[in-house]
Amino acid sequence: MAMTSSQVKQQQNNMAGTGTGWPRRNSQNSSAAVSAGAAIEQKNNYPSAALNRIINLYPLTNYTFGTKEPLFEKDPSVPARFQRMRDEFDRIGMRRSVEGVLLVHEHGLPHVLLLQLGTTFFKLPGGELNPGEDEVEGLKRLLTETLGRQDGVKQDWLVEDIIGNWWRPNFEPPQYPYIPPHITKPKEHKRLFLVQLQEKAFFAVPKNYKLVAAPLFELYDNSQGYGPIISSLPQALCRFQFIYM
Fold first, then answer.
1. Cβ(109)–Cβ(213) under 8 Å?
2. How far apart are CA 159 and CA 203, in angstroms?
3. Which of 143, 149, 179, 236 has the most beta carbons within 10 angstroms of its beta carbon?
4. CA–CA separation, 131 vs 93, rounded Å?
5. What are all long-range contacts of 128-132, with beta carbons under 8 Å and residues at least 24 apart?
6. Dist CA 54 CA 56 (whole Å)
7. Nearest to 143 by CA among 197, 216, 63, 89
8. Which residues pair with 214 in a beta bridge?
9. pLDDT tens-digit series, residues 171-185
10. pLDDT tens across 141-199, in order?
C-alpha cells in the first residue's frame, strides 16, 4: 500500500523522536556526543602530568667543580673484569649496576655530564650494586663516592625517573636494550636513572677523571665516540619536556 507524502513525513518524525535509525538525532544522544567530544578535546589539550613530564635544567655555570683523590676501577684490565664477573655470577648470580644521567643546559641545549678517562673513554657516574641493595639508594651511594663533596656537607641526589634498561647476555663487552631470546640467564642488568640536579651544587671530581658536559647533538648517533648506551641518551630523553631555568 502506497504512503502519502504526509504519512512519510510523519513516520520520519516518529523515528527521530524514538531514536531509531542512524544517525540518532534525539537530544539525549546529541548531548552525550557533545560531552564526549569536549572531554576528548580537553584531554588532548591538557595531557596528564604523568604523560607530560617536565624537567627543570639549570645552566652549567650554576655548578662549581673541585677535585679529590683518584678513584680507580676494581679491575686492572678488561679480562680481569670479566673474570671477576664470572666468579661472582657463580656465587651471587647476575650483576646489577646503576648509572645516573645528570643534565645541565648551555646555549639553550641540554648537556649530559660525563666522566672522561684519558682522551677517548667516557662513562656515566655509577657502578655496581651490592647484593640486595636498593637501586635508588645504591645509585645515591655511588654518586656520592664518585662526585660527592668531602667537606662534610651532604649532597642530596634526586632520583625519580628510569630512562633505560640494558642487558649483558654473556661475559663480553656487548650490551643490549633487551634480552636476546636465546638468553635465559643474562650476566648483568644495568639500569639508567635521570638525576635531577638542584639549582646550585658543588661536585668533587676524582683527579684521574675529567667531568665534561656533552651536548645531546654530539651524542646522537655517535656510538663510535661514546658507545651504544651514551649515544642512545638523546632518544631516551626525548620523552621529557625541558624547561631552561
1. no
2. 17
3. 143
4. 9
5. 128/74, 128/95, 128/96, 128/97, 129/96, 129/97, 129/98, 131/92
6. 7
7. 197
8. 112
9. 999 999 999 999 999
10. 999 999 998 777 788 899 989 999 999 999 999 999 999 999 999 999 999 999 999 99
Q: Is 209 exposed, middle or buried (0-12, 13-18, 19+ CB in 10 A)?
A: buried
* pTM of structure: 0.78
In sequence order, what are the beta bridge partners of 112?
103, 214
Q: Are 116 and 212 in contact (CB under 8 A)?
A: yes
Query: Which residues make beta-bridge pairs with 6?
Result: none
Question: Regarding predicted confidence, which is higher, 230 or 32?
Answer: 230
Burial of 237: CB neighbours in 10 Å, binned 0-12, 13-18, 19+:
buried
